[in-house]
From TrEMBL:
Name of the protein this chain belongs to: Arachidonate 5-lipoxygenase-activating protein
InterPro entries membership: 5_LipOase_AP (IPR001446), MAPEG (IPR050997), MAPEG-like_dom_sf (IPR023352), Membr-assoc_MAPEG (IPR001129)
Keyword check for Transmembrane: yes
Keywords of the record: Endoplasmic reticulum, Leukotriene biosynthesis, Membrane, Nucleus, Transmembrane, Transmembrane helix
Complex and partners: Homotrimer. Interacts with LTC4S and ALOX5.
Record organism: Ptilonorhynchus violaceus
Cellular compartments annotated: Endoplasmic reticulum membrane; Nucleus membrane
Gene: Alox5ap
């Protein structure tokens, strides 16, 4: 809602009418940042749900909250100059990788239980809980 509100505000500021795409650089930056965030959220939601269901809910929720703050930083950085959005983008990629690896660990644990009867769920939860605070390091 914040991103859409910014696009609408910038559109009205540039033209005074409703939503119309024009060539102003500030509107293009806001519109592009909104589109980039919109395209990234389906992937984020998929890995967030998989990590939470298959591995551990607390580290997945923490990583999800961090991702939302990082996307906000990316959006605001994109409004200034495109180079200011790079740290938010890279930080977001790292969080998505963490969530993806949590999902893979959960799937591997399921197959280990199914085929061999070995359950490493406690170890995986301990490792992900220990690693998740490292996401705070920029």
């Amino acid at each position: 809602a914040f991103f859409a509100n910014k696009v609408e505000h910038e559109s009205r500021h540039c033209n005074g009418k409703g939503f119309q795409r024009q060539g102003s650089s500030s509107f293009d930056r806001v519109y592009t940042a909104n589109q980039n965030c919109g395209h990234a959220y389906p992937t984020f939601l998929a890995v967030l749900w998989c990590a939470g269901l298959l591995c551990s809910q607390a580290p997945a929720a923490f990583a999800g909250l961090m991702y939302l703050f990082v996307r906000q930083k990316y959006f605001v950085g994109y409004l200034g100059e495109r180079t200011q959005s790079t740290p938010g983008y890279l930080f977001g990629k790292r969080i998505l990788l963490f969530l993806f690896l949590m999902s893979v660990a959960g799937i591997l644990n399921y197959y280990l239980v199914f085929f061999f009867g070995s359950d490493f769920e406690i170890h995986i939860k301990t490792i992900t809980s220990a690693i998740s605070p490292l996401l705070l390091i920029p």
